[in-house]
Structure formats: structure tokens, C-alpha cells
Fold this protein.
Amino acid sequence: MSHLSPATIFSPTVARQQLAVAKDWSYIDSWLLIKFANQPIPAFERNASTLKALLSLASLNETADEEQELLARSRENALTAIQTSLDNDPNTELLHTLEDSLTPEGQIALESLSSLSTTLNLSTPSTEIIGRKLLSLQTTSYTLSQATSRVATLQRSLTTELTNLTTLIASLQSPSYQAPTDLPKQTLDLQRKIKILTSKLPEIRERIAALSSSPNSSTSKITVETIKAEEEKFKEWLATVKDLEMQVKAFHGLPQDIDLARLELESLRMELRDLTRERDGLFEGLVERESPKKRGR
């Protein structure tokens, strides 16, 4: 009773609680002694939280121990039953005789078949079933290898993307993307300009409205038909200009003075008349030379 507090003597409820706690600690101490055997128990703080955690741990440990004990008993019973069935089997002696009569190669083959059946979890193995199992395992292995290859490719792609993102983040954090030092000043200037323009906006709107409603406004509305008509007029003027250019080219080479140009034109006309008379004379002479020959024939 030395571990009880003085308040326990005057409060039966507190006494029962402290007795329960003392009993739990006694159980924990016994459990720790069993688990640590002859080794010293590490020092720890004794409080309500520690007691609660240790009680939960002890309960789980006992449950696990009971399950292991049940499993061990089941295995022991199964082995006993198998051993009993083998002892009572009339073919046991025959099996031992066959096993002793096997050649070393046969013994190796039998052990291989036995281990393979155990690995494949086959109770009654046969070559066909083992072949199917091996084929299924080979297919599964190939599928897993393909999946591994795809995962490796995906991992490489993700690594590349991660590298690119890291590079992009580093570039975005570089001084090139940092805000200029005079950004607050620029912001204030822009805000000042915005305020000035905002204050002038009503006045500009009034001017536009006044100009739009003015009766003296002679501004005509431009339409597609107007543009087409102007284009036709332009084409007509262009044709007229080309005709005038052709007429001007006919007087190319004449002097710029009008009188001199007239004299030059008259001289060219006289030269043209002389050439015409010369041509006519040559033509008449040619006709006279050819006429006697035709009569002689």
C-alpha cells in the first residue's frame, strides 16, 4: 500500500483507480521481463499515456502469440496426420523400394519434379500441367518485362520533362525576368497618364457628339458602290492618258519650239513627196522595160 497516495485513504474511488493502475503496471512489468528475458529493461517514463500504449502493445503481442501457437499446432497436427497416413499406407514399402532402386539420374529427376511441383503449388503434378504452368509463367514474365520497359521509358520521359522544367524555372528566376528597379515609378507615371486621359475623355466625347450632330457636316458616307464608281472613273482617265501618250509619241524627235517644229514637219513632208515621186518613176520605168518582152512573147 506504500504506492498509494494519501488521498486514497479518504476516497474509495481513487483507491480503486490507483489499484487498477498498479495492477496494470504489474502486468506490464511481468510482460516486459518475459520479453527481455535476462536483459535489462530500458528506462522509460511511467505515465498514463505510456501505460495505455504498453497495454495495447501487450494485447496485440498476446494475440499474435496465440495465432502463432494455433498455426504451429495446425502444422504439427497436419504433419502427424501425414506421417500416420504414410505409416499406414501399404504402398509405403513399395515406394521406398522404388526410390532405392532409382539411378542417380532418376533420383535427380524425381527431386527436380518434386521441387518443381512444390514451387508451382501442384498437389498431383503431371508433365502437361507443369508445361502449362511453365508456359503461363513465361507469358507472365514476358508481360512483366514489357511493362518494365514501358515504365522505364516513361521514367526517362518524366526525367527529361523534370530537367526541362528545372531549367525553365531557373531561367524564370534569372535576372532577365526580374521586375525593373524603377517599376513603382513607371506604375505611378502610367496611373497619372490614365487619370489625365480619363479626365479628358468626357470632353472628347462631347466634341465627337457635337461634330456628329453638326448640320454643316458634309462628310459623305463611303460605300462599296462609291468606291466602284470612282474605280471606273479612274480606269477611263487611265485610258485617256494612254491615248494621249500615243499621240505624243508620234511627235517624238521634233523641236520643242512650235515654229521650228512646223518647219521640220514641212521639210519631212517635202522629203516624203520627193521619195514618193522617185518611187513612182522607178515603178513606171520597170513597167516599160517589162512591157516589150511581154509583147514579143
Remarks:
- Residues 9-88 form one domain.
- DSSP finds nine helices and no strands in the chain.
- The mean pLDDT is 80.
